[in-house]
């Protein structure tokens, strides 16, 4: 269940989490 959800949201979360995550890490 977790793997399936992560895979499906992997593309969506990747772009939505990488952008803010990098910004916070870079800040």
UniProtKB/TrEMBL annotation:
Domain of life assignment: Archaea
UniProt xrefs under Gene3D superfamilies: Aconitase, domain 4
EC category name: lyase
Keywords: Lyase
A GO molecular function held by the record: 3-isopropylmalate dehydratase activity
Enzyme Commission identifier(s): 4.2.1.33
InterPro entries registered for this protein in UniProt: Aconitase/3IPM_dehydase_swvl (IPR015928)
Protein's UniProt name: 3-isopropylmalate dehydratase small subunit
Species annotation: Candidatus Syntropharchaeum butanivorans
Upper taxonomic lineage: Archaea, Methanobacteriati, Methanobacteriota, Stenosarchaea group, Methanomicrobia
Gene this chain is encoded by: leuD
